TrEMBL record:
The HTH cro/C1-type domain, residue ranges: 6-61
Entries under Pfam families matching the protein: HTH_26
Full protein name: HTH cro/C1-type domain-containing protein
Top-level taxon: Bacteria
Transmembrane segments: none
Species classification: Bacteria, Bacillati, Chloroflexota, Ktedonobacteria, Ktedonobacterales
Originating organism: Reticulibacter mediterranei
Length: 74
């Protein structure tokens, strides 16, 4: 499962949600939704805009999380 690290990177760079939405040219609502749920699906074009606004690679915005096995061990 992939987790978005947008909130963490923006905070580390001192970039607020308002500044990020303006710099990336995406809606504030979209940024708020991403901050609230870092596991949500987003369009690649949105991810590219955010990466450009933060001055990082798209790869820096994604962190792979190990997926827990939901089957019980027998």
């Amino acid at each position: 499962m992939a987790k978005l690290k947008i909130k963490e990177i923006a905070e580390a760079k001192g970039i607020s949600m308002s500044k990020l939405h303006r710099s990336a040219d995406i809606t504030y609502r979209t940024i708020r939704l991403i901050y609230g749920d870092p596991y949500r699906d987003i369009n690649l074009s949105t991810l590219e805009k955010i990466a450009r606004a933060l001055g990082v690679s798209i790869c820096d915005l994604i962190e792979e999380q190990p997926q827990e096995d939901t089957k019980p061990d027998i």
